[in-house]
Amino acid sequence: MKTQEKRAEVYFNGTLVGFLLKTDNKYFFEYNKDYLRNQANPPISLTLPKREDPYVSDKLFPFFYGLLSEGDNKELQCRLLSIDENDHFTRLIKTAELDTIGGITVREI
Fold first, then answer.
1. Is this model's pTM higher than 0.85 or not?
2. What is the rounded CA–CA span in Å between residue 16 and residue 21?
3. Residue-range definition of the domain harbouring residue 89
4. What is the reported pLDDT for 103?
5. Is 31 helix (H, G, I), strand (E, B) or coil?
6. Potential cystine with 28: which of 21, 22, 36, 93 (Cβ 3.0-4.6 Å)?
7. What pLDDT, on the 0 to 100 scale, is given for residue 26?
């Protein structure tokens, strides 16, 4: 059976920070090498300090989950975009590209 992959680029104030990947059963976040090289660039989260090795999780990282809408907004987005309410990665890549709180945006690859 072929593994399903979804990919996204993560930006901080318009600068490419790293890459987010979802496979059938794992999530990965990896910092962009150029972003890592610049010591002035901050980590995107205290829970995701800068490092070369990718982060791996069985569920969407809490930092990215925190970018998602809840309640009525979540229901509305899922209905309008035809997204399963439990598909957090798809919700993230479909809703966090332009209008997010703070400097982080996520763009589907």
1. yes
2. 15
3. 6-108
4. 87
5. strand
6. 21
7. 96
Place of tokens 């899922």: 78
The CA distance from 39 to 42, in Å, is 8
pLDDT digits (tens, 9 = 90+) for 53-64: 999 999 999 999
Do 81 and 94 touch, CB atoms closer than 8 A? yes
The count of domains in the chain is: 1
The answer to whether residues 8 and 107 touch, using CB atoms and an 8 Å cutoff, is yes
- Please give the Cα distance from 90 to 100 (Å, whole number): 15
Q: Is residue 20 part of a domain?
A: yes
The structure tokens 């999780």 sit at 57
Q: Is residue 80 part of a domain?
A: yes
In a domain, 18, yes or no: yes
In a domain, 39, yes or no: yes
